[in-house]
Amino acid sequence: MSQYHKQKTSYKDEGSLVAGLNAMGYETVEVHETAQNLVGYHGDLRAEKAHVIVRRKYIDRAANDLGFVKEKDGSFSAIVSAYDSTKHSTQWFIDLKKKYSEHLLMKTAAKQGCRLVQRKDANGKIQIRLMDPRVRA
Amino acid sequence: MAQFIDAIIDENGDITIELNGYVGKGCEAVQEAFNVFGETVEIRKKPEYNQTVKAKVKQR
Question: Where are the alpha helices (DSSP H) in chain B?
Fold first, then answer.
């Protein structure tokens, strides 16, 4: 049985986390108000629970579920199995963080009435310019 | 003067946001609105003309 470990993140926006996972290739993501048990690669119900779950069938045939549990401070911690930590590596989580940040930025910009002027992706950095049409003083 | 929000998401996924063209309280309101990324580690007001605020926020 593959051991799960918990990994703290700063994600607090559930919608952007789901969008980030979608952008990482996981189109089907479960979101639960009450945390649900994760399922291991044998189909066994695990003790670990999560609010945002990518089921193992969408990851790999031999994978365990990937979960994110909502902590008391509102942030989500990732619950990753040791077996899948090659796929869900440090770099994978950095890429997820980038997708999360971009989605949250654009979501916040839309709320503020800002529009995208430019987006550049170069040398691993994403540069985004937004214009705020409202005069604020 | 046009008002722009310039964001850079770096190699580590950390985001830096720079507000350009804003003045005074308007700047602070936008800065607050975009302070959604986690712990604020740096807020720097540029002295020249007091028209720009650079706010760097990082995610762990």
Answer: 24-33
CB contact set of B6 (below 8 Å; sequence gap of 6+)? A127, A128, A129, A130, B17, B18, B19, B20
Q: Which amino acid belongs to residue A25?
A: G
Predicted pLDDT at A134: 80
For residues A17-45, one letter each, b for 16 or more C-beta atoms within 10 angstroms of the residue's C-beta and e for the rest, the string is: bbbbbebbebeebeeeeebbebbbbeeee
The minimal CB distance from B11 to the residues A10, A109, A124 is found for A124
SS3 content of chain A, % helix, strand, coil (to 5): 30, 40, 35
How much is the pLDDT for B11?
A: 92
Range of the domain at B30: 4-57
User: What is the value of pTM for the model shown?
Assistant: 0.87
Could you tell me the CA-to-CA distances from A120 to A11, A76, A93, A114, B14 in Å, in that order?
A: 24, 29, 21, 17, 16
Cβ separation of A97 and B6 shorter than 8 Å?
Answer: no
pLDDT in tens, B7-60: 999 998 889 998 888 877 777 888 888 888 876 545 555 554 455 555 555 554
**B9 interfaces chain A, CB cutoff of 8 Å:** yes
Question: Quick check: helix, strand or coil at residue A83?
Answer: helix
pLDDT at A121: 94
